UniProtKB/TrEMBL annotation:
It holds the Pfam family Glyco_hydro_47. Belongs to the glycosyl hydrolase 47 family. Residues 94-133 are annotated as: Disordered. It catalyses: N(4)-(alpha-D-Man-(1->2)-alpha-D-Man-(1->2)-alpha-D-Man-(1->3)-[alpha-D-Man-(1->2)-alpha-D-Man-(1->3)-[alpha-D-Man-(1->2)-alpha-D-Man-(1->6)]-alpha-D-Man-(1->6)]-beta-D-Man-(1->4)-beta-D-GlcNAc-(1->4)-beta-D-GlcNAc)-L-asparaginyl-[protein] (N-glucan mannose isomer 9A1,2,3B1,2,3) + 4 H2O = N(4)-(alpha-D-Man-(1->3)-[alpha-D-Man-(1->3)-[alpha-D-Man-(1->6)]-alpha-D-Man-(1->6)]-beta-D-Man-(1->4)-beta-D-GlcNAc-(1->4)-beta-D-GlcNAc)-L-asparaginyl-[protein] (N-glucan mannose isomer 5A1,2) + 4 beta-D-mannose; N(4)-(alpha-D-Man-(1->2)-alpha-D-Man-(1->2)-alpha-D-Man-(1->3)-[alpha-D-Man-(1->3)-[alpha-D-Man-(1->2)-alpha-D-Man-(1->6)]-alpha-D-Man-(1->6)]-beta-D-Man-(1->4)-beta-D-GlcNAc-(1->4)-beta-D-GlcNAc)-L-asparaginyl-[protein] (N-glucan mannose isomer 8A1,2,3B1,3) + 3 H2O = N(4)-(alpha-D-Man-(1->3)-[alpha-D-Man-(1->3)-[alpha-D-Man-(1->6)]-alpha-D-Man-(1->6)]-beta-D-Man-(1->4)-beta-D-GlcNAc-(1->4)-beta-D-GlcNAc)-L-asparaginyl-[protein] (N-glucan mannose isomer 5A1,2) + 3 beta-D-mannose. Its cofactor is Ca(2+). The chain crosses the membrane at residues 41-63. It comes from Rhodamnia argentea. The keyword Hydrolase applies. InterPro entries: 6hp_glycosidase-like_sf (IPR012341), Glyco_hydro_47 (IPR001382), Glycosyl_Hydrolase_47 (IPR050749), Seven-hairpin_glycosidases (IPR036026). Gene3D superfamilies: 1.50.10.10. This is alpha-1,2-Mannosidase.
Amino acid sequence: MSNSLPYSMKDVSYDNAKFRQRSLYKVINQTLLTQNVKRDWLSCSTGKFLALVMLFGLAYLFLTHTSSGPEVSGGLAKNVMVNEGDKINGDGISGLRKFWRKPPRLPPRLSPDEKGGKNSLSREAENPSSRLKWVSRQQKVKDAFIHAWSGYKKHAMGYDELMPLSQRGVDGLGGLGATVVDALDTAIIMGADEIVSEAGSWIETQLLDRIKHKGQVNLFETTIRVLGGLLSAYHLSGGDEGMKLTRNGPKPTVYLDTARDLADRLLSAFTASPTSVPYSDVILRDSSALPAPDGLSSTSEVSTLQLEFNYLSTVSGDPKYSLEAMKVLDHLKTLPKVEGLVPIYISPQSGQFSGENIRLGSRGDSYYEYLLKVWLHQGGSENSNVTYLYDMYIEAMKGVRNRLVHRSVPNGLVFVGELPYGSNGAFSPKMDHLVCFLPGTLALGATKGKTKERAMKDNLLTFDDLENLKLAEDLTHTCFQMYSVTSTGLAPEIAYFHTEEYSEEGLDGGNKTSKYLSDIIIKRADTHNLLRPETVESLFVLYRITEDPKYREWGWQIFEAFENYTKVDTGGYSALDDVTHIPPRRRDKMETFFLGETLKYLYLLFSDSDVIPLDKFVFNTEAHPLPIRSAVRSS
Ligand code: DMJ
């Protein structure tokens, strides 16, 4: 097993591999089959004549069919000697080649079973006893959400976060009551009416005042959690011709007005910067802004604001929010990259990337997520003025496949590592749990929110889509195994993968029954779990798209592990210090994203697919669903 081959060349057993790298034999065979030529064609003289023509054709194809053509890209294309072929064949053949049109790549085929209607996977979801099981598991997730909220309400109402063991609150995000806003749309979606009323009324009576008087907040965190949460609540409670999922809480305009006031202050991060790259922090009370102490902003932070600011412009009718936020992406488009991959720091002073560290974990992650999602949110059309974002996304995912995807030994788990010293430096087999957002994004990007079955029936999947979908499935499996290898069944914050070049003894996850115990290395400093959502987020998206019930089962196992080891009797759930030991030490913190994301994604994983459908909503990086423009008008 090689660690240096591009992803697409390493795995030839993909479901649809036959449609990607067709041999000469297959090209001819498929052409014959398509034209319905019978087996006895050699028995008549016309057949013999045709055989001669075929022989000439074969010789011609042999000479000319060396180019993989422009539609075969990324890993495969890199390994085909396109230019060499041209040289050998000479000018005459090159001229002839102009008349040769390679047959289009055949679409992936469905099995006869799938063609008949519902596939066996989607039938499983409709089986009455299976439905009952998932309805009851979904209720368990709602109960967990109510338990988390009750701890927060009792001990920390109005603080950013709950410290469940100390039974008090803490303001780790600037003091805007971040848990209240992050949790609100989860409560709306779950139909937790009492919580909608409590959170809604706190926002109506307290939040504007906080926004006017509080000091320093981080632009990114405040945008994704508070602005995103308010905008989603606005839509889900009936604003913008929205869904009216609840009658509780204030009028939707309360959420919108609060969002506007907040965004007006956040805009200073853009306007104070000498370039289109915003500063990292804002002082709310006087609408001023300042860079981080080292002067640098995170790449993911400056590129993960646009869904929220665009939607605010749409619903407020004021383009200024979108204009400022989109300038960042317009600018990032012009900067040099390594096959679409970018360093994790950027300077607002110069507008240039800083350092060479490339990763899809912290500070890099949602740059790639928003390239896709901002495009999808604008309608996902081929001709929109943000199509360049989709192109950047596709290029970056090729870069991921070619440069960052490797396999572990001995069991071949597919993982995404890092290039801490840039494209010419050594590869690091380190993968943050944060990277587990990627499979969900890859699957979403492949089918654009449709089911895989639908996308295949409609012949919508390109070569890149197929590669990305397969990578999504493999990575989801790896992310699940990051949970499964530990004693608690919960993932560490960071995992390293055992490869031919890298191994460390005695740092396993502790679950001696796991087949992957020696594939995954967990360093002592990385054993904590912050109740993060990325894996269950991807399980949710993968389930919606593939309809494979294994993703639900994996999600249920993870939920049970949260229940077993992180639930605090007096209310709330706690982060853990060490997932490799039982009982695990606790960390006395319930992050806002446990209510905003983790429990929401688990709830939606167990719900019917028409609850917040993926072709009508885009989830911001904090799991706040915002309606897709074309979908709002047609729904
Ligand atoms: C969340 O705030 C967001 O998902 C962000 O993009 C990454 N980190 C956390 C959750 O882990």
